[in-house]
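FAQ: What does the model actually see?

It sees only this:
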Amino acid sequence: MGGEKSCRHVGQAVRLTEFRRELKKRSQLLCESWEKYEQATDLLVCVTCGFVGCFSDGHFSLHLQAHSKHFVGFQLASKTFWCEPCNMDIPIDVRPKVEKARQDFCDAVEEIAGKKRRQIRNQMRAPQTTLSPITTPNGSANNLVDLDTHADTPPVPRGALTLETKTREDEGANGQNGVALLNMPLRTKARDDKMR
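And it is asked to produce this:
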């Protein structure tokens, strides 16, 4: 902190509810100003609206200049506030209200980051197939939708059912008709009764 100067901007800028809402929407914290969302290590989050920008390339400062009521950022690496009008880091334990706000923001970031980590871990544990959005239970090797056998039908060997297409030359069309020809007859109740 520069001399006896004490920043009064933090109390005016803090909007914890907005901050939390915006962080929850994100899958990752990346600078919003990069076209390719390159990863930066000096990220600040606007405590008023949740904008994420990098400090070293000036993206966070540009955001603050564009929004006159936004002037304080929360530094993710150091877990401290940065005040743009005062051009300084707000030290830890400078004033009780500021320290409480800092702790609230730290807790919010940790809570949301923890939830995101759990979501990612759960997604990695539960494999999904391209055939079904239904996830398999933990410990299951097969997705129920992918099974070749069902309770009321006999097992069908893999590859026995193949799809072929034939062209519609007789109608003068150049494309394919999409009619599937099965290499195996369909199971019907009449055929089952005949087999018995």
